[in-house]
TrEMBL record:
InterPro entries: 2Fe-2S_ferredoxin-like_sf, 2Fe-2S_ferredoxin-type, 2Fe2S_fd_BS, 4Fe4S_Fe-S-bd, Beta-grasp_dom_sf, Helical_ferredxn, SDH/FRD_Iron-Sulfur, Succ_DH/fum_Rdtase_Fe-S. It comes from the Bacteria. NCBIfam families: dhsB, PRK12386.1. The lineage of its organism: Bacteria, Bacillati, Actinomycetota, Actinomycetes, Pseudonocardiales. SUPFAM superfamilies: 2Fe-2S ferredoxin-like, alpha-helical ferredoxin. This is Succinate dehydrogenase/fumarate reductase iron-sulfur subunit.
Length: 243
């Protein structure tokens, strides 16, 4: 079944504007298909970043009707045929052109997370327990689409926070390392607070809601990290020991 949809797509740089298009939609298509059809028929210079068209490369992140989404995983069938569909770039990062953002903030934050620090062990000297493998397994599903970063109000609405806040994706990376039994950098929760702004997260869970990999970022990474920080800082026995 084919119909004509009404699309509004951001064109240009930060001072650009929304442009209206009427474009063909066929059964089974996703929003990225429609953007490609616009490129092929009406707007050959429309910039969009994509790679896998399978929800795995994390490149096609944008906002559809104001919701952060992967364009290749957003089915046209979730919209009414007479609905206007507005496609805009991510709001939390500088715009390069049309639907393409400069996401280098995320790479800067990634480099600031201290690397895994393994102990000096010979092969076979340590047997990893299954429970330790499973604890952080879900965090490794991250495709680095940065939709959680785009959504988190701490940076989305406050550019000035970017310097001190690494965002849910990289706090989750710190949590993953903290949960690794062989990581020798034992002050990860303190680093999360001091270097990555863990205290600025007020557990709104918006990051978790938009994650296309359905990772429980808040419940399984950020809250445990906050609890471990609280244990270390305020445990009366540890306090005595530190003195
Ligand atoms: Fe994307 Fe989820 Fe990874 Fe965030 S945690 S970058 S939303 S896959
Ligand atoms: Fe932001 Fe997620 Fe915390 S949206 S405030 S990092 S729970
Ligand atoms: Fe790879 Fe959408 S094109 S996630």
């Amino acid at each position: 079944m084919t119909y004509q949809a009404h699309f509004r797509v951001w064109r240009g740089e930060a001072d650009g504007e929304l442009q209206d298009y009427t474009v063909e939609v066929n059964e089974g298509e996703v929003v990225l298909d429609i953007i490609h059809r616009l490129q092929a028929t009406q707007a050959p210079d429309m910039a969009v970043r994509w790679n896998c068209k399978a929800g795995k490369c994390g490149s096609c992140s944008a906002e559809v009707n104001g919701h952060p989404r992967l364009l290749c995983m957003t089915r046209m069938s979730i919209f009414a045929e007479d609905e206007t569909i507005t496609v805009t770039p991510m709001r939390a990062f500088p715009l390069i052109k049309d639907l393409v953002n400069d996401v280098s903030y995320n790479y800067v934050k990634a480099r600031e997370v201290r690397a895994f620090t393994p102990p000096d062990l010979e092969p076979g000297e340590y047997r990893m327990q299954q429970v330790d493998v499973e604890r952080s397994q879900e965090f490794r599903k991250c495709i680095e689409c940065f939709l959680c970063q785009d959504t988190c109000h701490v940076i989305r609405d406050h550019e000035e926070n970017k310097e001190n806040f690494s965002g849910p994706r990289f706090l989750m990376r710190v949590a993953e390392l903290e949960m690794h039994p062989l990581d020798e950098a034992r002050n990860r929760p303190e680093e999360a607070r001091g270097d990555h702004g863990l205290g600025m997260c007020n557990i709104t869970k918006c990051c978790t809601e938009v994650c296309p990999e359905h990772i429980h970022i808040t419940d399984n990474a950020l809250i445990p990290l906050k609890e471990r920080l609280a244990d270390r800082r305020y445990d009366p026995l540890l306090k005595l020991f530190r003195r």
